[in-house]
Amino acid sequence: MAELSARSGLPVATIKYYQRERLLPPGRPTAPNQAEYGDGHVRRLRLVRVLIEVGGLGIAAVRAVVDALADETVPLHELLGTAHYALGPPVPEEANSGEATAAAAEVQTFLDGLGWRVSREAPARRALASALVALRRLGRDVDASVFEPYARVADDIAAWELERIPDERRATRTEIVESAVIGTVVYEAVLVALRRLAQEHRSAARFGTV
Amino acid sequence: MAELSARSGLPVATIKYYQRERLLPPGRPTAPNQAEYGDGHVRRLRLVRVLIEVGGLGIAAVRAVVDALADETVPLHELLGTAHYALGPPVPEEANSGEATAAAAEVQTFLDGLGWRVSREAPARRALASALVALRRLGRDVDASVFEPYARVADDIAAWELERIPDERRATRTEIVESAVIGTVVYEAVLVALRRLAQEHRSAARFGTV
Q: How far is residue B56's CA from residue B50's CA, in Å, rounded to a whole number?
């Protein structure tokens, strides 16, 4: 256990907590109060840390991912979906109003038009619907077509991001999930930050000099 | 005041609170306990609402924007900068470690390479630096060049977003700031959501069928 702590960089107390919460399987007992841990445990701990620290997941959400991971009958796509949905984005509170339902239907039509295969449960759908509702409340007369240029860009990004995720010939399921989660969360922050900086740069170019 | 409430859709108590907080100028007194409000007040209230409800700004941050707005000697670019920076992204706590300082220097070199004119105070810089730190802590051997494809995309997006913001020939300063804030915040959520959906769609295409 001390060795596992050293290799994972996590305090023993944290590792024991994860074990009690069933996020990490027990080691192979070698003596009373002694157990052996392997590379699988180190990898699992790293994934759990990524989900919690990078993805901001709660314990229950991590457990859902870990359970799907342990069950080899769960197809990889479904496993990735479990992790992906747990990452959010958080669903806005007022997602059940009449306007929100109408907006959700418009989002569906829009996604159909793109030919995207996306589950009905995807949290990001509701984020789109609520953006539409927000814009209208602000007096903007918009429909889902305002999303079009963003969808094109998003699809380009996703295409080359997906290529960087290893497949089952080159990596374990744990590593694939870890890679997908890091890609989704960390590079989302990168994209958002770079868009802000690009806006500032271009705003300087347009408004800065009179 | 009752009319202003009806036109802005905000309760009288909220409008009075904004006035006490100096977010809204007083009306023109017409009688004791009576004042006249104009279109400028309605526009201002809409902007304040956008900053708080869409941008998530606190009262002090809104006041900074409103003060810059009222001071006609503040150039538009600086005014937009005040609003833009108040929007975040929030700066990660551990932004002052040695790794973070090194990462910030790498971000500077990277931005120089792009030729972007960006203030040293831009919060998004620190978001980039901390993404670099996070990736390294996760064992990824990366440098700022991993940002490159995202920077290209972000610059394309910012270019056509900036075009949609009206200029001083067509809109008041209040309207320009409002448009910029809505564009930055609401369409950031749209971009993030669409990237997630595109990832799911492409993940289905790649991992979904065996």
A: 8
| Mean pLDDT across A36-50 | 89
Question: H/E/C letters for each residue in B146-195?
Answer: HHHHHHHHHHHHHHHHHHHCCCCCCCCHHHHHHHHHHHHHHHHHHHHHHH
Confidence at residue B32, expressed as pLDDT on a 0 to 100 scale: 83
Do A201 and B160 contact (CB within 8 A), yes or no?
A: no
State how far the alpha carbon of A23 is from the alpha carbons of A35, A45, A83, in Å. 17, 8, 14
- pLDDT for B92 equals 64
N- to C-terminal Cα separation, chain B:
65
| Least Cα separation, residue B22 to chain A (angstroms) | 22
Helix (H, G, I), strand (E, B) or coil at B91: coil
Would the ipTM clear 0.95, i.e. be above it? no
Decide: A116 and A107 in contact? Cβ < 8 Å: no
Give the residues across from B29 on adjacent strands: B35
Mutation target among A94, A130, A197, A210 for the B interface, most CBs of B within 10 A: A197
pTM for the whole structure: 0.87
Residue B209 has pLDDT above 80, yes or no: no
* Distance, CA of A1 to CA of A14 (rounded, Å): 11
